[in-house]
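Reply to dn_fold:

You asked what the input looked like. This is it:
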Amino acid sequence: MIRKSLLALFILGMAACGDSATNQTPEQQAASACESEAKVRTEGKSLALDMAALAGSAKAQDNIWEMQAPITIQPGLRDEAKQTLKCRVRLQQGKDPEIISIGFEF
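and this is what came back:
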């Protein structure tokens, strides 16, 4: 009986934790996908990106989110580059976010 109770508590606890991505707004999900892709595109260089500004700029048409925000690549280093990250992401329920386009503009 104790084992069943402990198992039930464990299952309830895990269900309460949930998936952090499902707790995000669509704007935050799209911004996170853009940040991840920016990290891939900058090939491991350090970057500074204001996620609140990126998510705050998001505009949706159908299930496509378009957003932009300032990004600094290699902040504080000699080859620091300040640019604007522009990104378009498709969000569909039950699927991972899909980057449609991403660009770095001076």
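The chain has a mean pLDDT of 85.
Hope that clears it up.
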